[in-house]
Amino acid sequence: LVERPFPMRITYTIEAVAGGSRVAIRAAGDPGRFFALVGPLMSRMVYRNIALDLENLERVVGHAEDATTGR
């Protein structure tokens, strides 16, 4: 659950697939009246933050794989 800039729930589902992983993301929240007025801007901000989360996840998973495989 994310509280700022408004309460929203972001769910990441990760499943193993041949050759890697599949990540599905669902973001749901109620921006209220103020944020509803700036919806397009908020969509870009949420998208950017999720993209950064995925980059961080990829880096962490890559380090974990390197540690287990010795590469």
Helix and strand topology:
Layout: E1 8-17, E2 20-29, H1 32-37, H2 39-69
Antiparallel strand pairs: 1-2
Descriptive labels:
71 residues, alpha+beta, two-stranded antiparallel sheet, 2 strands
Fold and architecture overview:
The chain is an alpha+beta fold and 71 residues long. The chain is built from 2 helices and 2 strands. 52% of the residues lie in helices and 28% in strands. It has a two-stranded antiparallel ribbon with strand order 1-2. β1 and β2 (20-29) form a beta hairpin. The model has no long low-confidence stretch (mean pLDDT 78).
Radius of gyration, Cα only, in angstroms? 16 Å
Low-pLDDT runs: none
Largest sheet: 2 strands, antiparallel
What's the overall average pLDDT, rounded? 78
Between the first and last Cα atoms, what is the distance in angstroms?
Answer: 35 Å
Number of strands: 2
User: Roughly how much helix do the residues carry, as a percent range?
Assistant: 40-55%
